[in-house]
Write a structure and sequence with these properties.
Elements (H helix, E strand, L loop, with lengths): L2 H7 L20 H16 L1 E6 L6 H11 L5 E6 L6 H11 L8 H17 L4 E6 L7 H7 L14 E6 L1 H6 L6 H4 L2 E6 L5 H14 L9 H11 L3 H17 L7 H8 L2
Helix pairs in contact: 2-3, 4-5, 9-10, 10-11, 10-12, 11-12
Length: 267
Amino acid sequence: MKQKEILSYFNLEAHPFSKELKTDELMNLPTLAKSEQELMLLIETRGIGLFTGPSGCGKSSVLRKVATQLNPGLYRPFYISHTSLGTTEFYQSCAVALGLSPLGRRSKIFRRIKSFITDLNDQKRIHPVIIIDEAQALSGDTLQEIRMLTNFEYDSKNACTLVLCGHSDLRQKLQLNVYSSLANSITYSIKLDALPAQETYTYIESRIASTGATAALFTDNAKKLIHDISSGILRIAANVAWRSLINAYQHKSTQVEKEHVQMVTSQ
């Protein structure tokens, strides 16, 4: 059994639930669109922002879409995802993301990063947006020190926007007294929720339609069960939908029925 055989059987031009989507193919679902708007507000407001949600709910997709929408003459996004590191290694990763040399002592790398941010603002009039994904994996020492990346001119100037993006437990972690300095510096907090049922249905239908299918490939009962199993988490919904499609192919069905989705839970 090959993927191309499954796609051909259902008249699909590509894998409908692949995460390898172009930015313009990302869903404009109301739940995701709300977070996009809030992120844009955070970037305009500047400072430190918190963006959390359950694993697989679409946070990285929202970040990617927002990054491509920024005016390149005003903003420059930088993405960092290697976060399960010590503070020195984190600053080295940050320097690499900014296109700087990661060599030298931690204090030297830190000054190099701060100088780069200042130059980008004052000389080039471009506001840097530093996105730290998987921020729940940051060490305690790094979290305590990270606020200093945004401290300019006696903490009176927002020279960059820092977005801390992570799982829901990051929000709980920041409630600890040891992180009060960072928590009190957060200018805007965004929470991405799981999708309601109708948006899960829309997601499945739109992904199928975007890959060439014209008929209703998933029955209403199948879509409902996919939502129930995934609890509205995009990544889970996509995986369950794809495995259900494989089950339908193996049983030579022209539609994905509820029983094909039920098989996923026992596989």
